[in-house]
Design a protein that fits this description.
alpha+beta, Transferase(Phosphotransferase), domain 1, 2 domains, 3-stranded antiparallel β-sheet, 9 strands
Length: 254
């Protein structure tokens, strides 16, 4: 199907003729999400701009550039990476699974440290950079997980542990027991547990569940300690330790 068959697939003229895109030799051919238009809350812009100044780990925000023109709306340019469904979790090692979880937790903790709540953590809002992506954009790190879609995110006044509950926006994770008011940092961690659950189901398609991962997911979804920044830091440290455990044992054993 092309733009002649469906008008939603047509690239708008103002984008085709955007002077900044033309000067860079960028030729737009196809919209990826024609039914969705996202706009980041302007109040959160300062926080995201600050994070973009340092894209090294533990920051897991995708590299992006705001292109401004005197006569056209600003554009946000970023590389197109792969969905996490592209990762073969069904035959991955436990070490790989824990390392993957560690990256996501590391990125979320980094956001919380800067008083930013994502508020829509889910598998669809995570992407992975493969080695081929590093060729197209050298700012991208191969095998790194990136958090995307900040259109409902909030830059908060208070840090974790002191932030009061807010009315949650629409999210892809269902609210527990109809609750709509939640500490935003806690909500992120609750959703993180469901992201881990989603990937665990793929990982365990034809093998038993690792008990340590099942315990971790229950801990994330069920504990009230999730609202503390120190909890997130402890989670990041624990996942890093667990993912490195096989290598540590190999060094220790004769």
């Amino acid at each position: 199907m092309d733009e002649d068959e469906h008008p939603l697939l047509k690239v708008p003229d103002f984008l085709k003729n955007h002077p900044e895109l033309q000067s860079r030799g960028i030729n737009l051919t196809l919209p990826l999400k024609p039914f969705a238009v996202y706009q980041t809350d302007p109040l959160a812009g300062t926080g995201f701009a600050r994070l973009q100044m340092n894209l090294e780990s533990p920051n897991h925000m995708i590299p992006a550039e705001v292109v401004r023109s005197p006569s056209q709306p600003p554009l946000l340019l970023m590389p197109c990476l792969s969905r996490i469904d592209s990762v073969p979790f069904h035959n991955a090692s436990l070490n790989f699974l824990l390392s993957f979880f560690h990256q996501i937790a590391e990125g979320l903790e980094y956001l919380h440290r800067h008083r930013i709540a994502h508020l829509d953590m889910c598998p669809d809002n995570l992407v992975l950079a493969h080695d081929r992506h590093t060729v197209a954009d050298r700012r991208v790190e191969g095998k790194k997980v990136y958090i995307i879609d900040f259109h409902t995110s909030r830059q908060l006044e208070s840090p974790p542990g002191t932030q009061p509950a807010i009315v949650l926006p629409y999210t892809q994770i269902d609210f527990p027991s109809g609750i709509k008011h939640f500490d935003p940092y806690s909500w992120d961690v609750y959703c993180l547990g469901h992201v881990f659950e989603n990937r665990l189901q793929v990982f365990c398609h034809s093998r038993p569940e690792p008990l340590i991962v099942r315990w971790l997911i229950r801990w994330l979804i069920g504990t009230e300690l999730r609202q503390m920044l120190t909890f997130m830091r402890g989670l990041v440290y624990t996942l890093e330790l667990l993912s490195n455990l096989p290598a540590i044992l190999r060094r220790l054993l004769p």
